[in-house]
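User:
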Amino acid sequence: MNKLELITRLKNEANISRLEASRVVQIFFDDMTETMARGERVEIRGLCSFYVKSYKSYIGRNPKTGEKVRIKPKKLPFFKPGKEIRERVDHQ
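Assistant: Predicted structure:
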C-alpha cells in the first residue's frame, strides 16, 4: 500500500472528501516525522513503534578504492512491529 492508496481507503471508509483524507494522512506523517526528528519514539499500540537509533563515528572503507574513510555520526529511523501485526503477518 502506498500513500495514494491509503488516502483513497480513508476517503472511502470515512466517507470524507479526497482533500480531507489527504490532509489527515499528511498531518499524521508530518507529526510522526517531527516527533522522530526530536529523537522521540512514536508508538501505535498493537501495530508498531518507530524510534531513532544513534550511531557513533567510525572508520569505514571505500569499496572501490579500499581507502579508509571516517564515517560521521548519524541517526537513523527504525521500525519495530507490535505483537498483533507480527502474529497477523505470520499466520501460517
